[in-house]
Amino acid sequence: MNKLLNEIAEIEKDKTSLEEVKNINMSYGKSLNKLFLDKIDDEKKKSEDMIKSMEKYIKDLDEIKNQSPKAEMSTFNVSHSKYKDHYITSQNNGKYISDIREKSLKLTEGNYEKSNINDIKNTLQIYLLDAQKHNSDINLYLNEITNLYNILKLNNIKNIIDEVKEFTKKIEEYNKNVKSELDKSETLIKTIKENSNLETCKSKIESTVDGKDVNECIKKVKESKNYILSEESNNDTYFKNAKENNENASLLFKNIEMANNKVKYIMETKKDNDTSDINYNLDELKENMDKSKKDKDEADKNAKQTEKNKILFEQYKKDVTELLNKYSELAIKNNIAQTKKDSNIIINEIKELQKRATLQAEASEQKINTIKKEKFSIEDDNANNNKSNQAAIGIQTSLENLENKLLKITNI
To answer: Both 147 and 176 in a single domain?
Structure first.
């Protein structure tokens, strides 16, 4: 009894430990979800701050526009409606992020079920990435408006060129960032090509392959697919970063073009009294423009290649998934064929056993008939002998039993 009680106590202890582990996992999940919610809150505040800054710059731009000659504004091709559209789009993005925050809050305030805490975490993660993407768009519009304001407010050629120099440095940095993302993307594609090495399996799928080859290819294809899936997030990040850096480089180059137009306008209207070393300044402006264009074009080219690599990655994922499905179907077909083959072997073995049993039954039947004849001969010789009669009855019973058994065997 004591042994039984001890065993029950151990079981209860194990159950308690399991509950403790579940509680720890639940607590960890809640903490992680709280972290995601805090980050979404940060994105909401960031969007609000950027939109406020945008409102201030648009107000300042309107003042500059009202105070500047129309000829100057037409030189820069500054469209009032364009940056107003940027502002409206940013407002919509900000509202979208606020809605995401509200949905996230409701999600975390609900009753946590052990079965859905991971689902909540995954949903919050998607919400956070979505909020970051919309904020990235707001930031791009804000930068465009900010840089436009910084160019328009300058009326000194030297100051404008200094601004262009800063833009040139940033474009160079953005170009390097795009190249870095492209290099990582190229390395990933190269690794997938080397690790996949599925040409043999692709060619075998078109012909009959045995079970061993099927199992080996399934193993290889699964390993390749698992690797591709494990790198999917990195592949998306390389493309996203390259795209954002390229957009920033393109935006800054537009600002350099506006700065160049501003310098031309100042030169034509002689609004800049500081004309010292003017030729040197203009040469420096052209030098920076040429370098920026080269870096911008290179960034655009590399960003497009990164996009091609992303598409190629998706194609590899599609191909490996389809190949795995084909081999899985082939494995099922092979298993069915093998089962059918095994069944036929068993059936043939049963038929062979039946044949042997029939032959044995026929031989036994012949023996019974012989015994019957001998029995009748004995009965005739010992008709009045009681002991002999009893023996004959016993023989008759045994013969009947044997005949019944033989009949059953024959029926089989």
So the answer is: no
